[in-house]
Design brief:
The complex is a heterotrimer of chains A (167), B (80) and C (384). Chain B is mostly helical. Chain B is flat and about 50 Å long. Chain B is 39% helix and 0% strand. Chain C starts with a helix and ends with a strand. Classes of the chains: A alpha/beta (167), B mainly alpha (80), C mainly beta (384). Chains in contact: A-B, A-C, B-C. Chains B and C meet through helix 1 and helix 2 of B and strand 1, strand 3, strand 7, strand 8 and strand 9 of C.
């Protein structure tokens, strides 16, 4: 019994190590659709709602340090890009939505924050790190993906958006 | 003076048994990146409060014979 | 468009997938009051029975600079007063009685620690430098530590090195026939590994080895050897090893966490010790957390320890320092924490009791100097 459990553990560690090499949602791929409720407020949003425009999708949670750092910076970017046809949508993955709500009370954002209680969206998008974010073009295809967050990502995001906007 | 006796059978046997027992009690399972919220809680932290850990190590290593642990030893004091 | 696709994270390397989080910035302060119980009259032969009382202030500041660098500054100030064990004499019935130092010592110690860290995608490096100074003792030390996450981000390897160089200049050396000045050095290396077992549990295991050389005796202690009172005399080398395992388990039912730490210690002075710490951190409502805990420590004494020596021992090392004896110690701890947003307040208490009879194994000798103490602390921290 002991040996079997130890073997199972070893196999799980081995497979997760192997799986780490598996690719996340790749540029050029169509991002899977989602239909999620707003964290605060009534109604749902679907990925399809953002067709024709660029959309930046950010998976985050209140317990993740880099996520906490990124939200105010995304809010600033959102204000900056108002009216330029770039949408920012955040998908919160906290286990308890109260934690996310309390965090947003301290650091409010004006772009939509959706809630995925069942975590089916990060599974479909093959999220490998927290936070993870994806820039999609007007046809719903992934242009660029980021795993984790560093302040340099904002520059890279601005550059990627500028490139998409130029004819 | 006798050097470090790493072949002390009693000690090694105890170490191996405690690790094996822990392995049996707890199931391994793959953890998705978004499932690490509980592990991020301060009460789940392996290191704990830095100042408390430093003071604990200081107090116990000056009042007992043993010292050291997961990190290599740090400062020194005359503590007697 | 094509340029973008090419430059994107199309095929991320193992390292780029994960982000080792930089340390949380902040400022923390902790005050500790440490109070040893007076030596019972029945165990006292002469001297002041009122033992140590120490008030400590600790300050720590962590600041991230740039994208990847972190600066850490730590400062400790402590004020100490009280008497300490000097030597042991048997009474007419052979029971050991402790002689304490006469005058109350009054001392201050200051310590400064500086650290510089570098955080990359999956690794963190840190170098540290420290300095401690008090009336009769000065220490300079440096360290390096590195950690690396495994590819799946669930495991982490850690490695550390440290070195310290201390000088002791005992007070009143001429008056008491103490050594005037001496030095000691210590070098140590450590290796560790932590693994997330499942979403509710994590385990860490580590090994550290240290080698101390130089003057390792206590310049303020004496030993009765035969008919003479001789200065504490220990070997000039000590190699020690500590093996530690830590375990944390989240309990869904109460959202509390079980915290278990075990350390096995062994050194070249023939001392072996087991230390087990167990605590349960239970949240109460939104912002409060109560953590009761226990700590049990048991050690087998050094082969050159005895309260006193009837005859001169063969190996010509001797010490009556209770800290090298065979004994066990149990401490009861309680901590209460309030946390809201970036602010945290914590109050803690500990009562520590050591007895020869609490030792797991080995023959406990009559050790009158074993200490009991209270420790109370208050801490405040803010995330920046």
């Amino acid at each position: 019994m002991g040996a079997r459990v130890r073997l199972q553990c070893a196999m799980l560690i081995a497979t997760s190590l192997a799986c780490a090499g598996a690719l996340a949602l790749e540029p050029g791929e169509l991002a899977p659709d989602f239909d999620l409720p707003l964290l605060q407020g009534e109604g749902n949003r679907k990925l399809a709602d953002y067709r024709q425009d660029m959309v930046y999708v950010d998976f985050w949670a209140s317990w993740c340090g880099p996520c906490r750092k990124s939200l105010p910076l995304y809010e600033a970017l959102h204000q900056e890009l108002a009216g330029q046809g770039v949408n920012i949508v955040a998908i919160n993955l906290d286990e308890h939505e109260q934690d996310a709500i309390e965090f947003l009370e301290q650091h409010p954002v004006s772009y939509p924050v959706l809630r995925d209680a069942s975590a089916s969206t990060p599974v479909a998008w093959q999220v490998k790190a927290m936070p993870s974010s994806y820039l999609l073009d007007g046809s719903g295809r992934v242009v660029r993906a980021w795993a984790g967050f560093e302040s340099s990502h904002l520059e890279e995001l601005r550059d990627a958006i500028a490139e998409l906007q130029s004819p | 003076m006798r050097l470090l006796n790493c072949n002390h059978p009693e000690a090694i046997r105890r170490m191996v048994i405690s690790l094996a027992m822990l392995g049996l009690l707890v199931a391994c399972a793959p953890v998705q990146p978004w499932e690490r919220g509980r592990l991020a809680l301060t009460r789940m932290s392996l290191e704990g409060d830095a100042l408390l850990e430093a003071m604990d190590e200081h107090v116990y290593s000056s009042k007992e014979a043993a010292s050291g642990g997961i990190e290599a030893a740090g400062g020194g004091c005359g503590c007697n | 468009m094509r340029a973008l696709l090419a430059s994107s994270l199309g095929l991320p390397g193992m390292e780029e997938l994960l982000a080792m989080e930089p340390p949380q910035q902040g400022l923390a302060y902790r005050f500790t009051h440490y109070d040893e119980q007076a030596l019972p009259q029945s165990q006292l032969l002469a001297g002041d029975p009122d033992r140590y009382r120490i008030d400590s202030h600790q300050l720590r500041w962590v600041q991230n600079i740039d994208q990847s660098y972190t600066l850490t500054v730590g400062y400790l100030h402590e004020a100490l007063s009280g008497s300490s064990p000097w030597y042991v004499i048997p009474d007419s019935e052979g029971r050991s009685l402790q002689v304490m130092s006469g005058a109350t010592i009054r001392e201050k110690r200051d310590q400064l620690d500086l650290g510089l860290g570098l955080t990359n995608a999956a690794t963190r490096h840190e170098i540290g430098l420290g300095y401690s100074t008090e009336d009769d003792y000065e220490a300079v030390y440096g360290s390096y530590s590195g950690r690396r996450e495994t590819a799946d981000g669930l495991g982490e390897f850690s490695f550390g090195l440290s070195y310290s160089d201390d000088k002791v200049e005992p007070s009143d050396a001429a008056e008491y026939g103490r050594i005037e000045r001496a030095s000691r050095e210590a070098g140590s290396a450590s290796l560790g590994f932590s693994q997330v077992l499942n979403r509710n549990a994590v385990i860490q295991t580590g090994l550290s080895v240290t080698r101390q050389t130089g003057f390792l005796s206590d310049p303020y202690k004496y030993v009765l050897v035969g008919q003479s009172l001789l200065p504490d005399q220990r070997p000039d080398e000590r190699v020690l090893m500590a093996f530690t395992t830590r375990f944390r388990q989240y309990l869904e039912k109460t959202t509390g966490a079980v915290q278990l730490d075990y350390r096995y210690y062994q050194d070249s002075w023939d001392i072996r010790a087991h230390t087990l710490e167990a605590a349960f951190a239970q949240p109460l409502g939104e912002d409060w957390e109560l953590t009761p805990g226990l700590r049990y420590h048991s050690q087998n004494g050094a082969d050159f320890y005895a309260p006193y020596f009837a005859v001169v021992p063969e190996h010509s090392y001797w010490s009556s320092d209770y800290r090298l004896a065979t004994y066990g110690a149990l401490s009861y701890r309680l901590s209460l924490q309030w946390q809201q947003g970036d602010y945290r307040l914590q109050a803690g208490a500990e009562y520590y009791n050591s007895e020869g009879s609490l030792a797991l194994s080995g023959t406990a000798q009559d050790t009158p100097g074993l200490v009991d103490f209270w420790r109370l602390s208050l801490a405040f921290s803010v995330n920046l």
